[in-house]
User: Which sequence fits this backbone?
């Protein structure tokens, strides 16, 4: 039994004759007769009483007709549900992130989407933390990847992503006395940072707020006298030219480390770290495409953490570690 036989059966019942059903379906009459005969053989009972006037349902046909209508309705409902699932998964998802996060996530995230999720379209915007927050509040983006310092409680729904370690970043310049003094260090205590000129953002940005928080909690005042544009790439050029040092996560500088252009020294005593979060607008319902993109972000973050590009600890718990499902698996979950 198949959906075509069910369709032919119900149209024949509705029209009262095989000839009329053939005209309705624009199919040759013998083709319908053959399919109905096959159906009756499979059911093991005659479904129609045939006469020169047309056809009428037998008692067995009446019973089968009720089941056939429900089966066709279930098939149509299943098709509609799957179509909605496909349409939702095929949407555009707009993701906003800070430049330091974009440095580690953008390229592998794009590659993952292009290779394994061709129905999704990813749009990435990068900017300072206050801009990312504003984009989410005004619905210019669907997902923000940002820091705990820049969360607006009540208007954002947040999920932890990774707790990243902060490092003192030093330009690898053999003629620099600071580099020579620090080149073999793997870690540095927070109070020691006060000995160096730092390139730091203002406390309007999430990183500036984090540095200020640690200054207050430790009682150690750092030196922020060096002119800094606030642009990450410009600041890193200054660091490589020996014009100051920066406090950054490994996500911002791993590529420069691999090229031997900078050294990153982990900050300890206290260990300096911060939480990276996935945020969505609390007043919006999430599309299946957005939900799927959040899972993809988690997967790519875990991959970059395993490669030591993003040093820190992945968030534990079912929400953070749930495996990425295939579209077919997601369809089964939705149908439950």
Assistant:
């Amino acid at each position: 039994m198949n959906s075509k036989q069910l369709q032919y059966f119900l149209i024949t019942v509705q029209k009262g004759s095989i000839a009329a059903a053939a005209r309705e379906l624009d199919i040759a009459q013998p083709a319908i007769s053959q399919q109905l005969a096959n159906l009756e053989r499979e059911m093991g009972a005659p479904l129609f009483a045939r006469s020169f006037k047309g056809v009428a349902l037998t008692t067995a046909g009446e019973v089968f007709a009720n089941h056939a209508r429900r089966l066709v309705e279930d098939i149509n409902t299943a098709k509609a549900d799957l179509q909605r699932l496909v349409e939702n998964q095929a949407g555009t998802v707009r993701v906003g992130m800070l430049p330091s996060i974009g440095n580690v996530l953008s390229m592998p995230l794009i590659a993952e989407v292009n290779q394994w999720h061709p129905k999704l379209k990813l749009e990435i915007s990068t900017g300072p933390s206050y801009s990312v927050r504003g984009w989410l509040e005004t619905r210019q983006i669907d997902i923000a990847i940002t820091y705990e310092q820049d969360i607006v409680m009540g208007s954002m729904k947040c999920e932890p992503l990774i707790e990243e370690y902060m490092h003192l970043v030093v330009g690898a310049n053999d003629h620099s006395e600071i580099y020579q003094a620090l080149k073999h260090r793997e870690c540095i205590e927070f109070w020691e940072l006060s000995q160096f000129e730092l390139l730091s953002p203002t406390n309007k940005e999430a990183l500036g707020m984090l540095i200020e928080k640690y200054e207050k909690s430790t009682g150690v005042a750092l030196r922020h006298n060096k002119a800094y544009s606030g642009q990450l790439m410009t600041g890193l050029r200054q660091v490589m030219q020996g014009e100051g040092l920066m406090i950054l996560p490994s996500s911002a500088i791993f590529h420069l480390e691999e090229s031997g252009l900078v050294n990153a020294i982990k900050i300890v005593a206290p260990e300096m770290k911060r939480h990276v979060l996935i945020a969505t607008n609390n007043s919006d319902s999430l599309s299946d495409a957005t939900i799927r993109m959040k899972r993809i972000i988690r997967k790519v973050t875990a991959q970059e953490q395993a490669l030591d590009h993003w040093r820190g600890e992945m968030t534990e718990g079912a929400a953070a570690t749930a495996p990425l499902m295939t579209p077919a698996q997601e369809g089964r979950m939705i149908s439950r």
Observations:
- The two ends are 26 Å apart (CA to CA).
